[in-house]
């Protein structure tokens, strides 16, 4: 049985719902052009959907239960395009927390995701209401990797399927890889220059690099970010690099370099500023601020969507992640209070870790919770972003005025 779309010029026909990929690929091309065109299926005005949604949300909570959502679809399904109805039903079936938010509903009604789902239906790759993505067989190695990443990071089956359909490795997850390669390159350079790989911080020339944050050189603004490329030793670099790659690369594959870069950079800046405010005489090195922002945001997202997250051994892996974070943080605390090799300059501070965690649990969680949603439309994002901006502004004023007002005794310049 064939379906007709009211917007197809000249009555062009869509391929049958159960057509094979070969049939769809050998079609005249007319259908694919329609899917990619800007002439999308007619959608009722948002006000109409809002009034319908409000009927099933008398408490004005912004959410309706999946049961009420199905009732809404059954009552008004005849007004919807069949493809869109399948997507909405899949959303109701696959929602792990038992409720649907208004933003999800409007996004789907405004064709935010329908083209990808319609393409999957046309090519016969899967029925939206069919088996789960995990049950699919015959996938290549790259497809298996994408599926694995989807289950690692996304809590809803409808999002996992959409991501699996749309991800193309173009662009690849370049940001975290580039930062990691740069960190390793800088570490090896100073390893040969200082003639040591373990506890490089014990070298008298370690802080003479233009990269670490040093309280006497806090006017050099680039140091608030560039300190991530210096590490106290190979043990410091190894732990940070492992967490950065294992967590950061999958997150970048799903959420993109811009969003993950935002969380990472905010964690890095918050880390150095937190040290300049609370541990005023200590230098800072290492990428822990950015790494802890990403890891804490991911772990918080997993906990908040525990029933929906289908990654394997998630309890064990979460425990291992917390152990790694604790070991690395414990090492940093021990090093900070260990007698420095060259007093009066203390060893690097551990407070940057806490600054990264604070960013991850606020901005980071909002970013990871809003997959494929516009951050600028999320009020919670702007609340946390404004709080972060106020913190940065206050920290800048603190660095300009507080050191002199408090007559802080700083170590000599390196």
UniProtKB/TrEMBL annotation:
<keyword id="KW-0479">Metal-binding</keyword>
<feature type="transmembrane region" description="Helical">
    <location>
        <begin position="315"/>
        <end position="338"/>
    </location>
</feature>
<feature type="transmembrane region" description="Helical">
    <location>
        <begin position="350"/>
        <end position="368"/>
    </location>
</feature>
<feature type="transmembrane region" description="Helical">
    <location>
        <begin position="380"/>
        <end position="406"/>
    </location>
</feature>
<feature type="transmembrane region" description="Helical">
    <location>
        <begin position="261"/>
        <end position="278"/>
    </location>
</feature>
<dbReference type="InterPro" id="IPR018247">
    <property type="entry name" value="EF_Hand_1_Ca_BS"/>
</dbReference>
<dbReference type="InterPro" id="IPR017213">
    <property type="entry name" value="Peptidase_S54_rhomboid_met"/>
</dbReference>
<dbReference type="InterPro" id="IPR022764">
    <property type="entry name" value="Peptidase_S54_rhomboid_dom"/>
</dbReference>
<keyword id="KW-0812">Transmembrane</keyword>
<keyword id="KW-1133">Transmembrane helix</keyword>
<comment type="similarity">
    <text>Belongs to the peptidase S54 family.</text>
</comment>
<dbReference type="Pfam" id="PF01694">
    <property type="entry name" value="Rhomboid"/>
</dbReference>
<feature type="transmembrane region" description="Helical">
    <location>
        <begin position="284"/>
        <end position="303"/>
    </location>
</feature>
<dbReference type="InterPro" id="IPR002048">
    <property type="entry name" value="EF_hand_dom"/>
</dbReference>
<protein>
    <recommendedName>
        <fullName>rhomboid protease</fullName>
        <ecNumber>3.4.21.105</ecNumber>
    </recommendedName>
</protein>
<dbReference type="InterPro" id="IPR035952">
    <property type="entry name" value="Rhomboid-like_sf"/>
</dbReference>
<dbReference type="GO" id="GO:0004252">
    <property type="term" value="F:serine-type endopeptidase activity"/>
</dbReference>
<feature type="region of interest" description="Disordered">
    <location>
        <begin position="1"/>
        <end position="29"/>
    </location>
</feature>
<dbReference type="GO" id="GO:0005509">
    <property type="term" value="F:calcium ion binding"/>
</dbReference>
<feature type="transmembrane region" description="Helical">
    <location>
        <begin position="224"/>
        <end position="249"/>
    </location>
</feature>
<dbReference type="GO" id="GO:0016020">
    <property type="term" value="C:membrane"/>
</dbReference>
<feature type="transmembrane region" description="Helical">
    <location>
        <begin position="174"/>
        <end position="192"/>
    </location>
</feature>
<feature type="domain" description="EF-hand">
    <location>
        <begin position="44"/>
        <end position="79"/>
    </location>
</feature>
<feature type="active site">
    <location>
        <position position="353"/>
    </location>
</feature>
<dbReference type="InterPro" id="IPR051739">
    <property type="entry name" value="Rhomboid_IM_Serine_Proteases"/>
</dbReference>
<dbReference type="Pfam" id="PF13499">
    <property type="entry name" value="EF-hand_7"/>
</dbReference>
<dbReference type="InterPro" id="IPR011992">
    <property type="entry name" value="EF-hand-dom_pair"/>
</dbReference>
<feature type="domain" description="EF-hand">
    <location>
        <begin position="80"/>
        <end position="115"/>
    </location>
</feature>
<keyword id="KW-0106">Calcium</keyword>
<feature type="active site" description="Nucleophile">
    <location>
        <position position="288"/>
    </location>
</feature>
<keyword id="KW-0472">Membrane</keyword>
